[in-house]
């Protein structure tokens, strides 16, 4: 990668430098480890020093067998200590096993992977790729490109795995310029036709919302495979091109490509966004005919689709028919019931979730519960659930949870309490929440507070037409016609247009939960 590429990245990121472990620190690692002799796991080190296999020495074979039983960082520490003691800490194959465990697996430790890697004299391309992949799984994306630069300086040539990891990270990073440079790297290395690299490039452009480039690359594929179809459909959904996503799905079927669970989940998400109930039912019929896709992810996507399309009974039928549920299943159903005003049913389902004890409620669960309380005007219950979320479940409320609470309090006429709640928020309030409170001020005729709220909105979105209309209507509700006329005049002078019919501010709480952050494809 060029130095210019790295400079661009560093200008966009606050890269926190990593304090690497030194060889001196590693040499201080005690051996034998105090627990090495008494641990049932580590006691097998001595026992498994025979029966060599292939080109591995007896010692190497013994260590390899240990890795098959390795499941915790404690085990990794013990194996690594013994590798150092026996002089095998430069064996790339064995040390690579440690780095893979630490960098790639969920129960590993990236810091420990760094400590091991930095003490390898001549790491190979596989180890460099593993480190790049490991950092890509964390929030420390700066190290991804630092390690790539070091990899090049050491003379290691990037391969299809390297570029795929870098492209994936940049998709999350969102740098269009860096994405173009990485794309050029794939062309220079002749990797653009590699199936995995090509699909990752398309996916990256989708994440960057460059749907035209993504489509162009897709159309250049002579015979797209299932992964390519899934990628381009997902790109369209991510970019809000839901109608085109459904058209691509139909085109895929005409190409005799059989969908898998990933296809169905993302296509059902497009149906949810469009309210395309009949198309969603057609997909459901395909699932029923194939009798292959009864996984939790697809069922969750069906529940979400039916609920978003207003077919709550069908959503509930799908939920009841599930043999296995996860927290996404419960969240989808609770949210669906809450959004459509089935308050009691949503709260009863939440109680069943707590009684079930198989799943622990998360932030999305409480978002649905608070939405139900808002629809039902349940102030005391809303306060109780909000407190329970923080104190009992240790879940930090997001701006969406605070928005629901402001809506609950404001609808009940407790606008001053809602205002104080906003002032006490640990994060900066956004325009949506302020607008929620302004709507409640209009509803209850609180002109003084409405003016305060309007000033906050002026700093955030000075030309938002709904704010002018809300404040003008607040004045009108109190008979302050001169003030109403002043606001209307200000709108005309600034060229602010009135909201189009149908842009109702009712149901603000729905906007807090709509397209919530938890994907339905996650099990």
Structure description:
Pfam families: E_motif (PF20431), PPR (PF01535), PPR_2 (PF13041). The protein contains 30 helices and no strands. The protein has helices at 3-12, 23-27, 44-47, 58-68, 73-85, 92-104, 110-117, 125-136, 141-153, 160-173, 176-188, 195-207, 211-219, 226-238, 242-254, 261-274, 277-290, 296-308, 312-320, 327-339, 343-356, 363-376, 379-391, 399-411, 415-423, 431-444, 447-460, 465-477, 481-494, 508-513. The protein is globular, with a radius of gyration of 28 Å. Mean pLDDT is 81; it is low at 1-53, 501-508 and 515-523.
Topology readout:
Blueprint: H1 3-12, H2 23-27, H3 44-47, H4 58-68, H5 73-85, H6 92-104, H7 110-117, H8 125-136, H9 141-153, H10 160-173, H11 176-188, H12 195-207, H13 211-219, H14 226-238, H15 242-254, H16 261-274, H17 277-290, H18 296-308, H19 312-320, H20 327-339, H21 343-356, H22 363-376, H23 379-391, H24 399-411, H25 415-423, H26 431-444, H27 447-460, H28 465-477, H29 481-494, H30 508-513
Helix pairs in contact: 5-6, 6-7, 6-8, 7-8, 8-9, 8-10, 9-10, 10-11, 10-12, 11-12, 12-13, 12-14, 13-14, 14-15, 14-16, 15-16, 16-17, 16-18, 18-19, 18-20, 19-20, 20-21, 20-22, 21-22, 22-23, 22-24, 23-24, 24-25, 24-26, 25-26, 26-27, 26-28, 27-28, 28-29
């Amino acid at each position: 990668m060029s130095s210019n590429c790295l400079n661009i990245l560093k200008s966009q990121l606050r890269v926190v430098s990593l304090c690497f472990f030194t060889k001196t620190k590693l040499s201080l690692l005690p051996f034998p480890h105090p627990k090495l002799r008494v641990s049932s796991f580590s006691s097998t080190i001595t026992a498994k020093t025979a029966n060599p296999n292939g080109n591995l020495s007896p010692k190497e074979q013994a260590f390899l067998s240990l890795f098959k039983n390795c499941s915790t960082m404690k085990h990794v520490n013990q194996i690594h200590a013994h590798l150092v003691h026996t002089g095998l800490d430069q064996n790339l194959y064995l040390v690579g096993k440690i780095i893979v465990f630490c960098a790639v697996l969920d129960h590993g430790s990236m810091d420990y992977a760094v400590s091991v890697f930095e003490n390898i004299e001549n790491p190979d391309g596989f180890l460099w790729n593993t480190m790049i992949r490991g950092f890509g799984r964390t929030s420390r994306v700066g190290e991804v490109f630092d390690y790539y630069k070091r990899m090049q300086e050491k003379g290691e040539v990037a391969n299809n795995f390297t570029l795929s990891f870098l492209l994936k990270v940049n998709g999350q990073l969102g740098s269009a310029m860096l994405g173009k440079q990485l794309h050029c790297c794939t062309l220079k290395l002749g990797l653009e036709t590699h199936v995995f690299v090509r699909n990752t490039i398309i996916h990256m452009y989708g994440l960057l919302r460059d749907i035209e480039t993504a489509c162009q690359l897709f159309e250049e594929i002579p015979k797209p495979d299932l992964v390519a179809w899934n990628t381009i459909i997902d790109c369209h959904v991510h970019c809000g091109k839901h109608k085109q996503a459904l058209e691509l799905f139909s085109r895929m079927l005409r190409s005799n490509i059989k969908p898998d669970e990933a296809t169905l989940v993302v296509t059902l998400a497009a149906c949810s966004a469009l309210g395309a109930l009949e198309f969603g039912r057609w997909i459901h019929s395909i699932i029923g005919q194939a009798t292959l896709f009864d996984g939790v992810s697809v069922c969750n996507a069906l529940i979400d689709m039916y609920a978003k399309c207003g077919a709550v009974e069908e959503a509930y039928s799908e939920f009841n028919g599930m043999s296995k549920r996860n927290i996404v299943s419960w969240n989808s159903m609770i949210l669906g019931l809450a959004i459509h005003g089935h308050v009691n049913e949503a709260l009863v389902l939440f109680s069943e979730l707590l009684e079930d004890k198989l799943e622990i409620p998360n932030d999305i669960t409480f978002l649905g519960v608070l939405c139900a309380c808002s629809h039902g005007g349940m102030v005391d219950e809303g306060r109780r659930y909000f407190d329970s979320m923080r104190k009992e479940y240790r879940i930090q409320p997001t701006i969406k949870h605070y928005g629901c609470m402001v809506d609950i309090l404001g609808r009940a006429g407790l606008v001053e309490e809602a205002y104080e709640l906003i002032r006490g928020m640990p994060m900066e309030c956004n325009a949506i929440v302020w607008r929620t409170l302004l709507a409640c001020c209009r509803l209850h005729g609180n002109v003084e507070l409405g003016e305060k709220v309007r000033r906050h909105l002026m700093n955030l979105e000075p030309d938002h037409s709904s704010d002018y209309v809300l404040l003008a209507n607040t004045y009108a509700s109190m008979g302050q016609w001169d003030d109403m006329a002043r606001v209307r005049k200000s709108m005309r002078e600034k060229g602010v247009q009135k909201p189009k019919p149908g842009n109702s501010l009712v149901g603000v709480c729905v906007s807090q939960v709509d397209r919530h952050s938890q994907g339905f494809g996650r099990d």
